[in-house]
Amino acid sequence: MFLNRIITLATLIGGILAVIVSIPYPNPFLPVIAAFFFTITLLLWKYGYLIIPFFTKAARIVEVRGGYEIPPSRDVILRKSENGYYSTKFMEVRFYESTVDKDNDQKKAIFESFEKAISSLKYIVKISLLISALDLSSHVDEIKTKRSVAETKKSKDGKGNSDDVVRLDREIAHWNRLLERITHGERPVEVISFASTTAFGITRDEAISRVQRQFKELKTILSSSMGCDVVELVDLDMLRCFEWEYFFPTSHEELRDEVF
């Protein structure tokens, strides 16, 4: 993440300097250089999570932060101990099933699938959930506004076309049902789930190889038993989950800014 920011800032400064220099000197090559730097900046900002690992792996650059190492592949986090190395790998777990709209038998099946998945694991796995309650105040205000507009139209056109009155009654009833469902139902939440697993090895390569095997096995078990998707996290996404182990967003807006 830090390396990505440094390169992006450097290319942006280079593009700005090329534009400034090209103003007093009508050199046709300077605007081309500026356009090149700005293009590289845009690519690094948008696709840095794909581009930077490619260069770090080719140049075998190892990032060190707080006693932890990020290898050139940028897909695991390493920590050296007296006897060897610990390697941790992060993955996103995308659940598509919820117990909110399920009956008792379906809920029981989901819980049994979860127990089956946990009992099938041969090593320690950490599953983390970031849960944020959604703020529906703006959505409720929007629905009330639409209902008020429909009621105003009905009051003005109450003596007009009967078909319009019926349509407005249906629209008002629709907004009332929607408000009832939102204000008196269960408050919706947004859930971000990710998992991590750690392996130990005498050498860096051994620790990385072991954690990669654990990830593949974990992906197979969770996806088959729980019907979820397990996605490997690398570079910025991996570092973001690693930082969330210590400090995580304090508001829903901050969470969406980091994730999206």
Low-confidence stretches: none
Oligomer: single chain
Structural class: alpha+beta
- Spatial gap, N to C terminus: 16 Å
Shape: flat
How much strand?
A: 15-25%
> What is the count of helical runs?
8
- Biggest β-sheet strands, sense, barrel: 5 strands, antiparallel
Q: What does the radius of gyration come to? A: 27 Å
The percent range for helix content is: 55-70%
Query: What is the chain-wise order of helices and strands?
Result: HHEEEEHEHHEHEHH
Mean pLDDT: 77
Q: How many structurally independent domains?
A: 3
Number of strands: 7
Question: How would you describe this structure to a colleague?
Answer:
- The protein has helices at 2-22, 29-59, 104-120, 137-156, 162-184, 204-226, 235-244, 252-259, and strands spanning 63-65, 68-70, 77-80, 85-94, 125-133, 189-201, 229-232.
- The chain has 260 residues and is an alpha+beta fold.
- The protein folds into three domains: 2-59; 63-134 and 188-259, no CATH class; 137-184.
- Strands 3, 4, 5, 6 and 7 form a five-stranded antiparallel β-sheet that branches. A two-stranded antiparallel sheet has the order 1-2.
- Strand 1 and strand 2 form a beta hairpin.
- The mean pLDDT is 77.
Question: Quick recap of the structure?
Answer:
With 260 residues, the chain is an alpha+beta fold. Helices cover 59% and strands 18% of the residues.
Layout of strands and helices, then pairs:
Layout: H1 2-22, H2 29-59, E1 63-65, E2 68-70, E3 77-80, E4 85-94, H3 104-120, E5 125-133, H4 137-156, H5 162-184, E6 189-201, H6 204-226, E7 229-232, H7 235-244, H8 252-259
Antiparallel strand pairs: 1-2, 3-4, 4-6, 4-7, 5-6
Helix pairs in contact: 1-2, 3-6, 4-5
